[in-house]
Amino acid sequence: MSFWLTKTLAEMTPDEWESLCDGCGKCCLNKLIDDETDELYYTNAACKLLSDKDCSCIHYEKRFEFVPQCTAVTANNIGELDWLPDSCAYRRLYKGRPLPAWHPLLTGSKNAMHEVGMSVKDKTLSETKVRDLEDHIVLWPLKDLD
Prior knowledge:
The chain is an alpha+beta fold. The chain is about 20% helix and about 15% strand.
């Protein structure tokens, strides 16, 4: 049986935990929070380490050296990371939702995720090329398919 159906997030091995990440890249997008309403906004400005072509971190193992403010998603902090999109596998499982049909653990590759538009593939700019984040607010990261 599939481990995510039988184990809690806290019971997963490090390899199982890492495999839950669908690799969509949405968590690597710069976000803004409205000071007055606390509303969260996603932008198409991505972390300088994110590859727009395959939605992966070019220095994943050493990402904290390059980007100290990068957040590690863990079983201990998943409940606090309300900026993760609803489509995120960690967030879905934390909230008692199943993995979506396009998830790489179910399909065997990232292709289905890219085909249904659930990743940042070919949709971002490097944060190094963006001057005003407010000019780069986008709605597509909020899309969630069941």
